[in-house]
């Protein structure tokens, strides 16, 4: 039977030893990012995906809500970086641009239904929702414009760079400002709705979305 002194030593030792979760932060966000990049890389395994760091968002670790959206964003960051590594009308550029277009369009449609439709109803966050949806439309037009142009031309890469910069600005704004504001006002039922709707809607959209080709911007 342990003595009082030995029990005291055991308690003291346990107090000094952190639990595994206290010693090391959750790897969920890191794994989510790796999974997102791997999905992008599967399209063109030989093309580098240098996306850099992901803008910090405290909702990143919630795999079912905002973390799910950020995971898609990382996939998009990777695809954008990979397209920029390609040249001319290479098979890699064509495949990556097609995947990027389907990803951005299906993500936007699902995000609008799952998140922004709820956010739009609250006067305190209506402006954020309208701003996000407006940028979705602008990005969609830029994609259609690129799809209608010659991939081998220097102007195509210049326009693609403009699209990349616009989209990176858009998702950085969502992650650092709009998601933070939305979280404060979404109800428990709104969050349940978002979990139920986003993945299903995105899959449906990606399976049926067509790539539009329409020049919108002047040289």
UniProtKB/TrEMBL annotation:
Gene3D superfamilies for this protein: nmb1532 protein domain like
InterPro entries, per database record: Hemerythrin-like (IPR012312)
UniProt biased composition (Polar residues): 16-30
Superkingdom to which the source organism belongs: Bacteria
Occurrences of domain Hemerythrin-like (ranges): 68-179
Region described as Disordered: spans on this chain: 1-31
Protein name per its UniProtKB record: Hemerythrin domain-containing protein
